[in-house]
């Protein structure tokens, strides 16, 4: 039996792991949990990327947070989600990044896959 010890690289934001440092560095730059991230979709669509820290500060107080003994329930209303999408220039990656960093990504009716498809359909056929 052969045992090989290799370095493992972990994302500082989402803890995803890599065996190659270059891939880990590229991932961290665009990670949706990184508050200072670079958005590839905004760059591709030639849109100005919104200030993520400013949006986090704006939407954090608008969440409805209910703590129970075992869980924390975080909710974002339809109006807040629509406002967030408007503030991110309808960029699905920026919207998802804000929702993930707020802890509300899986608790909203935001569908990243369909939003991404709509975004690229519009970019191709404005």
Structural notes for this entry:
The protein contains six helices and four strands, in the order E-E-H-H-H-E-E-H-H-H. With 126 residues, the protein is mostly helical. The protein has a domain at 47-124. The strands form two sheets. The protein has a two-stranded antiparallel sheet. A two-stranded antiparallel ribbon has the order 3-4. Helix 3 packs across helix 5. The mean pLDDT is 86.
Brief overview:
By secondary structure, the chain is mainly alpha-helical.
Provide the descriptors you would attach to this structure in a database record:
mainly alpha; two-stranded antiparallel sheet; 126 residues
Low-confidence stretches: none
Q: Taking strands numbered 1, 2, ... along the chain, how are they ordered across the largest sheet?
A: 1-2
Largest β-sheet summary: 2 strands, antiparallel
Strand content: 5-15%
| CA-based shape | globular
Distance between the termini: 59 Å
Mean pLDDT: 86
Structural class label: mainly alpha
Number of strands: 4
User: What share of residues is helical?
Assistant: 40-55%
Q: How many individual helices?
A: 6
The SSE string, one letter per element, is EEHHHEEHHH
Radius of gyration: 17 Å
